[in-house]
Amino acid sequence: MSSKLIVFGLLLFTMFSNPWSTSIEDQLTLYVSKQNKAVDQIYLEKFKTFADQNETYPVIRYIEADGAPEGIAVTPSIVFQNNHGHSLYYGRYRNFSRMKTFVRKSRLKHSQYSITPKKELLVWKDQRATITAPLKVTPMTGDLPSGFDQNSFSQSANVCFAKGMKHFELLPSFDQPKTNRAFYIDIHPHLSKDKTLTLKAEIYSQFNCIRSVYHSMREPLISGKWKNRRQLLETAAELLEAEILNVIKQSADGDDFVTIPVTTKTGNLQLDIAASVVKRNTTPLSETIPRNWKIKQTANSRVPLGAFSFLSPLDGYAGEIKQLAGNFSLNENKGLNDAEGMFSVAIKDITMGEKSFDHEVHYKMLDIKQFPSSTFKFNRVTGGSDQLRLYREEQCTVEGTFTMKGIDIPISVPATMELRLDAEGQYLLHTVATFSLNLFDDFKVKGPDGPSPSRDVLEFVLKFDLENND
Q: Among 34, 388, 426, 451, which lies 20 to 30 A Cα-Cα from 271?
């Protein structure tokens, strides 16, 4: 582990190590500056209402008065915390639908923090913040000149962009913290027969790789003679940097922000999150433990049945499983060894909290029309004691066949199961399981833009109760 990653982790630990005297199970903190003109009283009321509706305690911190933890570089920034840990919200602060998914997913699994090594990256260091502008040059189309090399042209574009931009510089290597802000620039070059170079462009927020925050696709950003290509690229850089600055200053979607001055004090800003007390019922209605079980569907639960996310630093692309179906049968001795079962999820019950993301996942990535569901069929269960006992955790491994998009792959899922009682004395089988899927290698599904394996591997956490199905 690099020393920079260790230091970064210590900063984030310090960020939450100084409590207030107030105790509450969940909290949602908004760090804001008086310079955030868009975060007005109307927004603050919406934020408070959102927190109340999602059973979290809202905390609003103005950095001018209270300071800001070192791990916070821009405002507005939003942090969820409970007694299990904390997560920074990586999304648009105006998108309450996605924020809801973030809160629910964080209750099940907190986000990880990471530093990603980058090469040849456009970087702007502004106060506490680091803003990056990864540049992607798509393959040149049209009448290519003799000896044209795409890699050389792309490298030249990076150099020209750094020269044309006022704030960004091209760094040969850079350790990119997850808390930085990024705007992804796509350049689409075309060369006509008369040697006119046309540059079209798109800019994407780091929070949405599907819909651009700026584009010049119908009309070119700039055009000119091929021999003047370096000057054209420098001018394109100047124009696109201005568009990035416009988004930072004002964004109806919520991509705007204000960087926090390096002179801002580090405040003691966190609540003391008390561990929740679980009351156990020890009087069952029946002494007979069920052998057959089904997944208990819980309406309006604070915690989803399951959550998923790509690997850090792309774990801001996360979502939840709203409904899960399935059955499970213990062995003849009411134990886990050689238990049988199958679980399934309808693709429509997978959400990332944003319509454009859900459409991309349902229709383009997973082809919901042809493959409306995915299944996991048990082949073998090993581990656990001979018979389940009340309130004793059992560790087991479930080997089985996972089917998605009509493709079968073998997977092994570690799980923890515990026999419990609900308030009425009915048996429940509490289940927690984790597993991961390599979307690209196994299913040829491409994830969001980013480094491998982060963009390829999807991690799942399941936490649900099974109820009597005898």
A: 34
